[in-house]
Amino acid sequence: ETGVTQSPTHLIKTRGQQVTLRCSSQSGHNTVSWYQQALGQGPQFIFQYYREEENGRGNFPPRFSGLQFPNYSSELNVNALELDDSALYLCASSGGRVRTEAFFGQGTRLTVV
Amino acid sequence: LAKTTQPISMDSYEGQEVNITCSHNNIATNDYITWYQQFPSQGPRFIIQGYKTKVTNEVASLFIPADRKSSTLSLPRVSLSDTAVYYCLVGRLLPGNTPLVFGKGTRLSVIA
């Protein structure tokens, strides 16, 4: 059990809609990273938040956006959903006492129809 | 960040020791090595992490030679439940943490 929780676990949305995914980081961690994992592929980095500021971004369009709150929990927002956005979305929590360790939540399975 | 190369897949029988080697020729001085295990439709699970020589925990050992250009994850006496994808990652020790970069991983199949 990592202490990183994501909600919801599954979600079905229609093309063009907007979605918000949530992540609660592990206690004591100040950094949250978001990843997209398509079927059969490794996770792809979307962006990272460190102390409420975006700290790096992968090759994803601006319709992928995020927030980190004072308690270090985080949201991933995706606007104008496309069919290719269907994937497992993962958040990773890090920045704790052992700074090099990152722990993942169980993921949110998003299906866009 | 150093790119990693690992075998696409491996097969093993139950009870055997499995060694998965990862190549990271361009690893930098500040880089550390981490291995994750992932089951279908679940988040990656942290297995082990190291910087040099040998690290052992309750589930695995990690061997890193002196030049650090490769590393080997050793799983003792695997069982069917060890069937999963294993990822080798190289990360950098920087404030705020640098993002982990995943490759395709090694798909381990354990056969009875």
What is the end-to-end distance of chain B?
A: 38 Å
Tally of DSSP β-strands of chain B = 9
The amount of beta strand of chain B, in percent, is over 45%
Name the biggest interface: A-B, 32 and 23 residues
Report on the architecture of this protein.
The complex is a heterodimer of chains A (113) and B (112). Chain A is mainly β. Helix content of chain A is 0%, strand content 51%. Chain A is built from no helices and eleven strands. In chain A, strands 2, 4, 5, 6, 9, 10 and 11 form a seven-stranded mixed sheet that branches. Chain A has a four-stranded antiparallel sheet with strand order 1-3-8-7, with no helix packed on it. Chain B contains no helices and nine strands. In chain B, the strands form two sheets. In chain B, strands 1-9-8-3-4 form a five-stranded mixed sheet, with no helix packed on it. A four-stranded antiparallel sheet of chain B has the order 2-7-6-5, with no helix packed on it. The model of chain B has no long low-confidence stretch (mean pLDDT 90). The A-B interface holds A 2, 4, 6, 31, 33, 35, 41-45, 48, 50-51, 55-56, 58, 88, 90, 92, 94-95, 99-107, 109 and B 32, 34, 36, 41-46, 49, 87, 91, 93, 96-105.
